Amino acid sequence: MTPDVLPHEKLDRAVIFLGPPGAGKGTQAKELARRFSAPHLSTGDMLREHVAQGTSLGQRAQPIMGRGELVPDSIVLRMVADRIDRPDCSHGFVFDGFPRTVAQAQWLGELLKQHGFKQPLVVHFVINPGLLLRRITGRRMCKVGGEIYNIYDRPPKCDARCDNDGGELEQRPDDREEIVGPRLAAYERQTAPLVAYYRRLGRLRDVDASKPVEEVTARVVEIVREAR
Ligand code: AP5
After folding, report:
1. Mutation choice for ligand 1 from 48, 67, 71, 76, CB with most ligand atoms inside 8 A
2. Which residues of 25-38 are buried (b: 16+ CB within 10 A; e: fewer)?
3. Per-residue model confidence as pLDDT tens for the chain (228 residues)
């Protein structure tokens, strides 16, 4: 059995979750961050927050995200650099959705070196592509705390309300079926090459993301511990 919160265990590096949209990166990143009391850095969540707040960055990112394309590095890299500079990131953190291109990975490698971090650990979510459409179109997120549900596989106890804080659940605009194809295509073209990139560097560990959430969590925790 996997222990729950691990009060004496800290992350000692960046852990990167890599995998296609809907593979379960956000679900697992939240859980790993909770167990190791580490920050969960989701570039998707950061961008969605800018969109919700109507910042100029959010206004530039919104139409791009709505088409299922990647937001330019001129927006994303500044956001990541600012976040890593915050004191809560001094031990390590969990990246979900970043890096997404080889250029972003090279930039991140330099940034981590400058901050004195060890080489990152990359957890690769390997999944049967046939599961992705159901996971993406069935996803609902809490407007308040960002908790992730699935109307098919992980429904809330109370219809359309978050179990944790009662917040309203909503569907992401890019989770509509017609945007799923472009998102998966962007992943194959721009992000999948990172698998070979990190494997060559000896940083990659595969996880079977088709398994139930608890089994994936147990394996991810095991991988993180083995790397320490
Ligand atoms: P982002 O928010 O990063 O989305 P994504 O990478 O497309 O990944 P998802 O959030 O769709 O999936 P996930 O793997 O986190 O799955 P989840 O855990 O939610 O990016 C959104 C957009 O922002 C991009 O398209 C781009 O425009 C922009 N962007 C972000 N980062 C960028 C960057 N670095 N550069 C440029 N642009 C960037 O799970 C999915 C569903 O499955 C849920 O319903 C969940 O309940 C369910 N589920 C999870 N695990 C399981 C399981 N084991 N069994 C059954 N159901 C499960």
Report:
1. 71
2. bbbbbbbbbebbeb
3. 455 666 668 899 999 999 999 999 999 999 999 999 999 999 999 999 999 999 999 999 999 999 999 999 999 999 999 999 999 999 899 999 999 999 999 999 999 999 999 999 999 999 999 999 999 999 999 999 999 999 999 999 988 899 999 999 999 999 999 999 999 999 999 999 999 999 999 999 999 999 999 999 999 999 999 998
Closest protein CA for atom 29 of ligand 1 = 44
Q: Return the residue matching tokens 């390997």.
A: 126
Q: If residue 173 lies in a helix (H) or strand (E), which one and from where to where?
A: none
State the pTM of this model: 0.95
Pairing of strands 148-150, 139-142: antiparallel
Largest CA distance in the chain: 47
Q: CA 180 to CA 228: how far, in whole Å? A: 36
